[in-house]
Input
Amino acid sequence: MNTADRKALRGLHVAIIMDGNGRWAQSRGLPRLMGHREGVRRLKEVVRACPDLGVQYLTVYAFSTENWRRSRREVTGLMSMFARSIRREARELLKQGVRMRFVGDRTGLSPVLQDLFAWIEDLTAGNTRLHMTVAINYGGRDELVRATRAICAAVAAGTLRPEAVNEELIAAQLDTRDLPDPDLVIRTSGEVRSSNFLPWQSAYSEFEFTPVLWPEFTRAEFETILDAYGLRERRFGGVTA
Ligand code: FPP
Output
């Protein structure tokens, strides 16, 4: 795709389910955490590539509400990796014009991680070149439950009429309230399902599934997928002339 075509794609929101870290590590006889570590390197490359490729919003699934079922060692390792990455990458993210946000239930995370989320969100709040959102302790159904509770509380308090509940009001209660819906959802590693990732927000998204494991997901692979997306027609349930 040429630069002009890419410019036409400017403002894209791409969401990624970064799957296959464990399999990548195990196939090499390495501990699973080494797969996640390699996954962070691929994520950094994708973040760097986004502005050139017309992607203004990037949302990634880093830890689901179901991931707590993994071994204690893997969960602790992932949590330390999140904290370490935030501390280590803050300066670079700021330099690259990345605005960081986190979605998911923060109350289930350690106070240290909660503080780091608030710190880097604050630090990068003025950036607009790339809006990067990381889903940690995120589950789409859990997000909808939390939103529904907030709406019910307002109705019970008499500050909201049930008839006033509509799609906009629900969307405004979600963790993603400040983001546009994703245009494209990519899942790596050959699994073909959305696993509770942005179910409300992806109602009209395109989906791309690649067999490539996340630790092998290169910029070239990202470009190929974006090019294929650029050629697709989006109709949002309507018809085109
Ligand atoms: C899925 O692979 C991947 C994860 C659960 C973790 C993804 C996290 C990162 C790549 C790091 C993100 C870091 C920051 C700082 C945002 P899997 O373990 O399910 O792989 P498998 O299906 O092969 O077992």
Remarks:
- The pocket of farnesyl diphosphate is lined by residues 18-23, 36, 39-40, 43, 62-63, 67, 82, 85, 134, 189, 214 (CB under 6 Å).
